[in-house]
From TrEMBL, chain A:
<protein>
    <submittedName>
        <fullName>Uncharacterized protein</fullName>
    </submittedName>
</protein>
<keyword id="KW-0812">Transmembrane</keyword>
<keyword id="KW-1133">Transmembrane helix</keyword>
<feature type="transmembrane region" description="Helical">
    <location>
        <begin position="12"/>
        <end position="35"/>
    </location>
</feature>
<keyword id="KW-0472">Membrane</keyword>
UniProtKB/TrEMBL annotation, chain B:
<keyword id="KW-0472">Membrane</keyword>
<feature type="transmembrane region" description="Helical">
    <location>
        <begin position="79"/>
        <end position="98"/>
    </location>
</feature>
<feature type="domain" description="Fatty acid hydroxylase">
    <location>
        <begin position="90"/>
        <end position="239"/>
    </location>
</feature>
<feature type="transmembrane region" description="Helical">
    <location>
        <begin position="15"/>
        <end position="34"/>
    </location>
</feature>
<dbReference type="InterPro" id="IPR006694">
    <property type="entry name" value="Fatty_acid_hydroxylase"/>
</dbReference>
<dbReference type="InterPro" id="IPR050307">
    <property type="entry name" value="Sterol_Desaturase_Related"/>
</dbReference>
<protein>
    <submittedName>
        <fullName>Fatty acid hydroxylase superfamily protein</fullName>
    </submittedName>
</protein>
<dbReference type="GO" id="GO:0016491">
    <property type="term" value="F:oxidoreductase activity"/>
</dbReference>
<feature type="transmembrane region" description="Helical">
    <location>
        <begin position="136"/>
        <end position="154"/>
    </location>
</feature>
Length: 53, 300
């Protein structure tokens, strides 16, 4: 028994949309950093370095 | 305050949720919401599915988190620990629930996967008793668990604590036979909240429709409404329907009350029921089998 062609096409279409949906929160986060000028990864690295001294 | 919220979620993810499920389950049972359909076979299956994954799956997740990932990605531990809490929350909420949406949808739309998921649909009732009811293979390969474990390893453990807690509450509440969402459709001032809620998260109305035994009443939609925590995926992909009603029957029409061990451990154990999807020579999807109807006898 096979999946019908329309369902197969919808699965492919929706999988492609899902890639955008997965990336969306990450892209929005990076956008917010570029607007605000925040660099939390740099602060975090400095904190780790200070802690290890 | 934050400390107490954190404590609530830590306990919720440990012993809290099973205790909530037991209490709600007792309330459902005492209100007669299982309608005498909780037979001995269903009881054993539901209890085994509630207990065994907690013993089998947790060590598996621990293995992935403590042994497998440090070997595979030795320098990546806590590499994303700098991600601010709310962004981490959003990344995990989308990553975890969208992965589960796909895992669930594919088990309905790819016929060869259906038999790993049918155990969850064979229950002719809704409620806490059947909320954990799954075939063991489906449970072990629950894809989003491994994704989330990986994100914990990469440093997003704190937001994961809250996402998994909220998700567990929503998905459990959507399976309840207590129709707690009804006031949001009937009480006027609650209706705007209800409108947003039923599109954003799974509710008894939308999730019960997914567990309907038929689509004929215009309420049941067992070939859609795949969302678990978020219903919004069904809205985006056009796989959902919202009726604000509850189906007249639950389960699967071609259910043959297969032995609990066959439902839990198929394909290791097969059913002896003739014509069952879980039997050796049974159909892959019973739905696709033509139903033989005997024409009514016409009296001369």
């Amino acid at each position: 028994m096979k999946t019908d062609k329309i369902t197969q096409q919808r699965i492919v279409r929706d999988a492609l949309i899902s890639i955008v949906l997965y990336a969306l929160p990450v892209l929005l986060m990076l956008l917010s950093f570029s607007i605000s000028g925040e660099r939390p990864w740099k602060q975090h690295t400095q904190t780790i370095v200070k802690a290890s001294r | 305050m934050l400390h107490y919220i954190e404590l609530v979620f830590r306990n919720l993810n440990g012993w809290g949720l099973p205790v909530i499920m037991l209490i709600v389950g007792i309330v459902e049972f005492s209100f007669g919401l299982y309608e005498n359909r909780w037979t001995k076979n269903e009881r054993i299956l539901d209890i085994v599915c509630f207990v065994v994954p907690k013993i089998v799956v947790r060590p598996l997740i621990a293995y992935v988190g403590v042994l497998f990932l440090p070997t595979l990605l030795p320098d990546a531990k806590n590499i994303f620990a700098w991600v601010p809490f709310w962004w981490g929350f959003a990344i995990i909420a989308v990553g975890d629930d969208l992965t589960q949406y796909w895992y669930h949808r594919l088990h309905h739309q790819l016929p060869w996967l259906w038999r790993f998921h049918r155990t969850h649909h064979s229950a002719p009732y809704m409620g806490m008793a059947m909320a954990s009811r799954q075939n063991i293979i489906y449970t072990i390969f629950f894809s989003q668990i491994y994704l989330t474990t990986t994100l914990v390893y990469l440093g997003l453990g704190y937001p994961v604590l809250f996402v998994t807690g909220i998700k567990a509450l929503i998905t459990t509440a959507a399976h309840s036979s207590i129709k707690w969402d009804k006031p949001f459709y009937t009480i006027r001032w609650l209706q705007p909240i209800g409108w947003v809620m039923e599109r954003l998260i799974s509710t008894p109305a939308t999730h019960h429709a997914h567990h309907a035994d038929s689509n004929d009443d215009g309420v049941g939609h067992y070939k859609g409404n795949f969302g678990n925590m978020f219903f919004i995926w069904d809205i985006i992909f056009g796989t959902g329907i919202i009726t604000r009603q509850y189906p007249s029957g639950y389960g699967i029409k071609h259910y043959k009350e297969e032995e609990w061990y066959a439902q839990f451990l198929w394909p290791v154990f097969k059913s002896k029921r003739k014509g069952s999807e879980l039997a050796v020579d049974g159909p892959v999807v019973g739905d696709s089998e033509p139903v033989l109807t005997v024409p009514p006898l016409v009296k001369a």
